[in-house]
């Protein structure tokens, strides 16, 4: 049927029949919406897969991000995080449980402060700690910052650093260095390439996971990736 060739009366009758059918069968609308959403989700997954593939070296081997879990694990999980993000704080325990339960997952942490000055201050202190005191000290501070619920300030960061017997003056001196700023800037540029606008965002193998995921869902995805 060519609708352009219908008379006004025929077109009105056709519309009335379509409306009557949809009113009698509203599930058709729901099915159409569901199919559209599924197609959009599939298109997003494919777009994310292409982004991960195109930027794999920067995601998985940037040379500066902290690596935890099992460095030789068969599954790699990358997390973009912000210390002021409530969902990042929730995810922190879930990720820790995942690493402890599985034992064969490599974790890569990327500092992505996007929630204001306090977020940036915390990340600069964390990155400086990693560069001055090494990965173990960074892990301690990362855990502490994820558990910290107060206002992030330099005095508060000093107290955290001192609680781990870190060389706080050296870390403070490093916070404004080109090396620290460059690391955060490069991660931000990578996030922009990956179209990441929120935290937490994860990359698991070839798939991007945008937002908080509980332990059970992450574990199911790990099993799925292993085939």
Low-confidence stretches: none
Instruction: Give the overall average pLDDT.
Output: 92
Supply the helix-strand structural class.
alpha+beta
The level of helicity is: 55-70%
Percent of residues in β-strands: 5-15%
- What is the straight-line distance between the termini? 48 Å
Strand order of the largest sheet: 1-3-2-4-5
Rg over CA atoms, rounded to whole Å, is: 24 Å
Helix-strand sequence: HHHEEHEHHHHHEEH
Beta-strand segment tally: 5
**Shape estimate:** elongated
Largest sheet: 5 strands, mixed
Count of helices? 10
Pfam families: DSBA (PF01323), ScsC_N (PF18312)
Keywords: Disulfide bond, Oxidoreductase, Redox-active center, Signal
Protein name: DsbA family protein
Domain Thioredoxin: 40-227
């Amino acid at each position: 049927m060519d609708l352009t060739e219908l008379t006004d009366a025929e077109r009105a009758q056709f519309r009335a029949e379509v409306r009557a059918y949809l009113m009698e069968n509203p599930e058709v609308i729901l099915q159409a919406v569901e199919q559209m959403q599924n197609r959009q989700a599939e298109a997003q997954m494919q777009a994310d897969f292409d982004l991960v593939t195109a930027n794999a070296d920067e995601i998985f081997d940037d040379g500066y991000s902290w690596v935890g879990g099992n460095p030789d694990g068969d599954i790699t999980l990358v997390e973009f995080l912000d210390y002021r993000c409530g969902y990042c704080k929730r995810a922190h325990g879930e990720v820790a449980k995942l690493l402890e339960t599985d034992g064969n997952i490599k974790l890569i942490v990327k500092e992505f402060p996007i929630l204001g000055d306090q977020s940036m201050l915390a990340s600069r202190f964390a990155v400086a700690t990693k560069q001055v005191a090494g990965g173990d000290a960074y892990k301690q501070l990362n855990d502490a910052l994820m558990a910290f619920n107060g206002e992030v300030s330099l005095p508060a960061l000093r107290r955290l650093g001192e609680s781990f017997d870190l060389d706080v003056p050296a870390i403070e001196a490093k916070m404004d260095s080109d090396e620290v700023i460059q690391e955060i800037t490069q991660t931000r540029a990578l996030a922009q390439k990956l179209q990441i606008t929120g935290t937490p965002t994860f990359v698991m193998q070839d798939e991007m996971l945008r937002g908080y995921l509980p332990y059970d869902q992450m574990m199911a995805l790990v099993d799925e990736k292993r085939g």
